[in-house]
Specification:
Shape: globular
CATH topology of the largest domain: TIM Barrel
Number of domains: 2
CATH superfamily of the largest domain: Alanine racemase
CATH class of the largest domain: Alpha Beta
Helix content: 25-40%
Distance between the termini: 60 Å
Radius of gyration: 23 Å
């Protein structure tokens, strides 16, 4: 069944799924993920050696990883647990790049045992690693001192960021490498997420080229990611990937020519691949009116979907039960015992208690950041593939809440 990539075009389907699986409910359209992956491949098809590594912190559901692995994707991991999930999804260890931050040397030792590629992002761990594994090739994450990203919490390449080794410290990196005779196979940067100004990417790749030219035996240059997707129909603040790809392709191919080797270019998209594939379905518990505000209280909260509260992120909200109703202003809030506002004074088709709402762009950093706050259960997840629905995570129960509790007798 060929479908529109936007599932809100099928309100009857969403209503059916909400009744079949209950709410709150995450739904992912894999065909949209596939489209985004192919878009990246096609955009950068002028580069001889290109790798797309899915940044799985965006959404670590095993089924999403398995499907991306079948498409040919590599994987960006930031924890030993993500590596283990990726291996369970049948990723080749050499197609996994581990780029941790502020982890112990013991976690990196475990990554070495699993045989994955490793990026190191601080001088202390670099020196320890060289002493332990002089023959293990490594990548190095550089901090380019670029302020980029849609929110200060996701800007990770500025001068005061905890991420990466300052590019002013490259001479120190060279001394460590020379003294230990280790093999540096690549350099990596990532400046932030939700970047729509392509100048930030171009500043980053310039620093990568400047650093890489002094290391003659590199296998790859890793640009990370940070591509911004549209959050509104009229949203112009998104990464225009086609002109960006043309500029980067031209600059990268010129670098390879000067460098004398066709090194591999790696990107690590997370949100770009999965964000727009996701939909979060909730039911309205109550309509509550104060002197100045009409609240639509839903059966969820920031325990399930924290991005609006944590990042002040905008997510479109549609009334699936009454899509053509009169537009009214609502503040959509959750059932947690603190302020958890999903949307403030939004124009939404008239809402009644019991209606089904859909929160869009729910594929990235939504379920993966969920919790059991207020002892609430995490919701189910469903995958749509070619119009067919598959349950890919069961809703939690009280057994899940209590299973690791050790009762004592006092």
């Amino acid at each position: 069944m060929k479908m529109n990539y936007d599932l809100t075009k099928y309100p009857k389907l969403l209503l059916k799924l909400s009744k079949k699986y209950g709410t709150p409910l995450y739904i992912y359209n894999f065909n949209k993920i596939e489209k985004q992956y192919v878009t990246m491949l096609n955009s950068f098809n002028g580069i001889k050696n290109l790798i797309i590594n899915y940044a799985c912190k965006a959404n670590t559901n095993l089924n999403i990883l398995k499907l991306l692995q079948k498409l040919g994707s590599g994987l960006d991991a930031v924890s030993i647990q993500e590596i283990e999930i990726a291996l369970k999804a049948k990723f080749n260890p050499k197609k996994i790049i581990f780029t941790p931050n502020c982890v112990s040397i013991n976690e990196i030792k475990n990554a070495v045992k699993l045989g994955v590629r490793i990026n190191i992002d601080n001088l202390s761990i670099l020196e320890q690693f060289c002493e332990l594994y002089p023959d293990y090739p490594i990548g190095i994450r550089i901090n380019p001192h670029i302020m980029a990203g849609g929110n200060k919490n996701i800007s990770v390449g500025h001068i005061d960021s905890k991420f990466g080794i300052s590019y002013y410290q490259v001479p120190h990196i060279k001394r460590i490498i020379k003294n230990n005779r280790i093999n540096v196979e690549g350099f990596h940067i990532h400046t932030g997420s939700d970047i729509y100004n392509i100048k930030s990417f171009l500043k980053g790749i310039k620093i990568l080229f400047k650093t890489a030219k002094d290391f003659p035996d590199l296998d790859y240059i890793n640009m990370g990611s940070g591509f911004r997707v549209a959050y509104k129909k009229e949203d112009i603040k998104k990464t225009d990937i086609y002109p960006l790809s043309k500029i980067i392709t031209n600059k990268f191919n010129k670098f390879c020519e000067i460098y004398g080797n066709n090194v591999t270019l790696i990107f690590e998209p997370g949100k770009f691949l999965v964000s727009e594939s996701g939909y979060f379905l909730v039911n309205v518990n109550v309509i509550k009116q104060t002197i100045s505000t009409v609240f639509a209280g839903i059966n969820s909260g920031f325990n399930h979907f924290i991005r609006p509260m944590f990042y002040n992120a905008y997510h479109s909200i549609e009334n699936i039960s009454n899509p053509n109703g009169l537009q009214r202003l609502y503040t959509v809030v959750g059932y947690i015992c603190e302020s958890d506002t999903f949307g403030l004074n939004r124009k939404i088709s008239e809402i009644h208690e019991g209606d089904l709402l859909c929160i869009k762009n729910a594929g990235a950093y939504c379920f993966s950041m969920s919790s059991n706050y207020n002892s609430r259960y995490r919701p189910s997840e469903v995958m749509i593939i070619n119009g067919k629905d598959f349950l890919i995570r069961k809703r939690e129960t009280m057994n899940d809440i209590l299973k690791n509790i050790v009762e004592i007798s006092v």
